[in-house]
Amino acid sequence: MSRGLPPDLPPLPALTRAECEVVDAYLEVLDLLGRINPARGRDTYGGLRAAQGLVSKAARLRDALTLMHERGESELHAATLERALRVLDGERRAGLVGPPAPRPDGRTSG
């Protein structure tokens, strides 16, 4: 490993194509919800654009889950999907949906 380069990410677990679609669409929804979050937003236009995009991303997530259900994939393999979400930075992305952590001085970020 060269100096200055980030460490290699762990490999993604083996997922079906439908599971990949669910994970990708879910993360896209999280990203947009993070941009809409009024506790983190900077302007109304950015939130508006994210809210407009949320409709199509939520439909993509719905369609991926529908496809899995129609194929008889009735169970989500939570441990495998959790690993995939962690590799794809899902924890940080999900954290942007909630309010920011309090600052050490006790003041809010706004």
Characterise this structure.
It is a single chain. With 110 residues, the protein is mostly helical. It is 57% helix and 0% strand. It contains 4 helices and no strands. It has helices at 17-36, 44-70, 78-87, 90-95. Helix 1 packs antiparallel against helix 2 (44-70). The chain is globular and about 50 Å long. The N and C termini lie far apart (41 Å).
What's the helix and strand layout?
Elements: H1 17-36, H2 44-70, H3 78-87, H4 90-95
Key terms:
single chain, 110 residues, mainly alpha, 57% helix
Q: Over all CA atoms, what is the radius of gyration? A: 17 Å
Largest sheet: none
Mean pLDDT: 89
Helix content: 55-70%
Poorly predicted regions: none
Q: Which percent band covers the strand fraction?
A: under 5%
Separation of the first and last Cα atoms: 41 Å
Shape category: globular
What quaternary form is this?
A: single chain
Structural class: mainly alpha
Based on DSSP secondary structure assignment, what is the total number of beta strands? 0
Our count of helices gives 4
User: How do the helices and strands follow one another from N- to C-terminus?
Assistant: HHHH
Short summary:
The protein has 110 residues and is mostly helical. 57% of the residues lie in helices and 0% in strands. The chain starts with 16 loop residues before the first helix and ends in a 15-residue tail after the last helix.
